[in-house]
């Protein structure tokens, strides 16, 4: 599975703190641990801006109204949740918009490593997961979505995306099903 990578997306303190499912974070940690054990690269994707926010636009509904200092290097809410701290050699990709590809060097890092299969987990299903899946599909990546490794504030939106929309462009599986494939390989 050396051509596969797990993208752990927007698992920052601010986002993880909003997830109501207490079992969510332990599931994602299980997926990350299983990937590491199987030698599948883990890439951490975070949203981040420069001090003073020169890289956000006021017309952007998602990010334009962020308060000063939000998601900058000194913001503790922008840090990756400590249960998922990157290990040495695990890239942290900083994106500037919703998709993991937007304003980042993700595509360069993936192609430099020969990765052509992405496994997606993150917050929110209707945000980073949807946007990254769509762009990855357009870039001809093979995609797997860990349905219960994704979370959204709206459970119905999560359900519709994972059951009806994502299967058009990705394999959609549970964390347990995916981790079993790693031990069988």
Could you characterize what this model shows?
The structure is a single chain. This protein is of the alpha/beta class and 185 residues long. The protein has a single domain (4-45, 78-184), classed as 3-Layer(aba) Sandwich (Rossmann fold). The chain has six helices and six strands; from the N terminus they run βααββαβαβαβα. It has helices at residues 13-16, 24-38, 106-112, 125-138, 155-165, 175-184, and strands at 4-9, 42-47, 92-95, 117-123, 142-151, 171-173. It has a six-stranded parallel sheet with strand order 3-2-1-4-5-6, sandwiched between helices. α5 links the parallel β5 and β6 (171-173). α2 runs parallel beside α6. The longest helix is centred in the first third of the chain and has 15 residues, at 24-38. The chain is globular.
Which properties best describe this structure?
single chain, 185 residues, alpha/beta, Rossmann fold, 33% helix, hydrolase
CATH superfamily: Isochorismatase-like
**Total helical segments:** 6
- SS strand fraction: 15-25%
> What spatial form do the alpha-carbon principal axes imply?
globular
> Strand order of the main beta sheet, please?
3-2-1-4-5-6
CATH architecture: 3-Layer(aba) Sandwich
Task: Give the CATH level 1 class.
Answer: Alpha Beta
What is the H/E order? Answer: EHHEEHEHEHEH
Overall radius of gyration: 15 Å
Protein name: Cysteine hydrolase
Pfam families: Isochorismatase
Domain Isochorismatase-like: 4-176
Keywords: Hydrolase
């Amino acid at each position: 599975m050396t051509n596969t990578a797990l993208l752990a997306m927007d698992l920052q303190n601010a986002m993880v703190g909003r997830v109501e499912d207490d079992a969510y974070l332990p599931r994602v940690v299980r997926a990350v641990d299983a990937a590491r054990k199987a030698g599948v690269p883990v890439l951490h994707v975070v949203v981040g801006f420069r001090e003073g926010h020169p890289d956000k636009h006021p017309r952007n509904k998602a990010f334009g109204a962020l308060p000063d200092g939000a998601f900058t290097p000194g913001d503790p809410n922008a840090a990756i949740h400590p249960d998922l701290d990157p290990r040495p050699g695990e890239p942290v990709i900083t994106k500037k918009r919703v998709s993991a590809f937007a304003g980042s060097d993700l595509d360069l890092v993936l192609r430099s490593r020969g990765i052509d299969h992405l496994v997606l987990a993150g917050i929110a299903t209707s945000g980073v997961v949807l946007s990254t899946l769509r762009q990855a599909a357009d870039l001809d990546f093979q995609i797997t979505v860990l349905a219960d490794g994704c979370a959204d504030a709206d459970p119905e939106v999560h359900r519709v995306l994972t059951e009806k929309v994502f299967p058009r462009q990705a394999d959609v599986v549970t964390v347990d099903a995916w981790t079993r494939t790693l031990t069988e390989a």
